[in-house]
Design goal:
Elements: H1 2-56, H2 59-62
C-alpha cells in the first residue's frame, strides 16, 4: 500500500512538472513571437546608428587606441 501511494505521488509530481514546463514554454514562445518585430526594429536602429557613428569619425580618430601609454624604447646614454 505504501508503495502504491508513493508511486501515485511520484506520478502526480511528474505530471505537474511536465505540465508546468509546457505551460511556461508556451508563454515564453508567445512572448518571443510578440516581441520579435520590436527587437528587430531596435536592432536595425542600433546598427544604423553605429554605422553612422563610424562613418562620421575622422581618419585619425579611427586608428587611435585610447589607454595607458608606456615608452618602451631603449635609452642609450
Amino acid at each position: 500500500m505504501k508503495n502504491i501511494l508513493a508511486s501515485l505521488v511520484a506520478v502526480f509530481v511528474g505530471v505537474f512538472t511536465i505540465a508546468f514546463a509546457a505551460i511556461m514554454g508556451i508563454i515564453l514562445t508567445l512572448g518571443a513571437l510578440i516581441m520579435r518585430p520590436f527587437i528587430k526594429r531596435k536592432m536595425a536602429k542600433m546598427q544604423q546608428e553605429a554605422a553612422r557613428t563610424m562613418n562620421s569619425a575622422s581618419n585619425d580618430d579611427r586608428y587611435t587606441i585610447d589607454g595607458e601609454y608606456e615608452d618602451i624604447t631603449p635609452r642609450h646614454p
